[in-house]
Write a structure and sequence with these properties.
114 residues; 8 strands
């Protein structure tokens, strides 16, 4: 595993790249903060895309059923295995850490007739 801090100028490019890679995957989003403690806000939801808007200073994670926003992000870290992206972390202006963990969808075989 390689954890790497992305520079601010890399965020838009990373989000564009990641959006292509993330299609069909599922995501967990967990928040860690001193004020709220540990909170799981998204569990195994299909992810549809990722975007950083520098004019509004917001990271948007497009999910199958809603939109998750991280306002005023200050740091972003990515965690890569040799075969692809595993998770990414964002620290917002209040110091809360948003941890997004990616999962492959469960591939079940078709039922057989008896």
């Amino acid at each position: 595993m390689t954890i790497r801090r992305l520079e601010h100028w890399e965020w838009s490019r990373f989000c564009t790249f990641a959006s292509r890679y993330l299609i069909g995957k599922r995501i967990d989003i967990e928040t860690l903060s001193l004020d709220e403690g540990r909170r799981l806000s998204v569990y195994r939801v299909p992810i549809q895309g990722l975007c950083y808007d520098p004019t509004r200073d917001v990271i948007e994670i497009w999910l199958a059923d809603n939109l998750h926003r991280i306002h005023r992000p200050r740091e972003m870290y990515v965690d890569n295995f040799p075969h692809g992206l595993v998770n990414f972390n964002v620290i917002d202006a209040e110091g809360a850490r948003k941890i997004a963990t990616l999962h492959e969808p469960l591939m079940l075989t078709a039922p057989t007739r008896r």
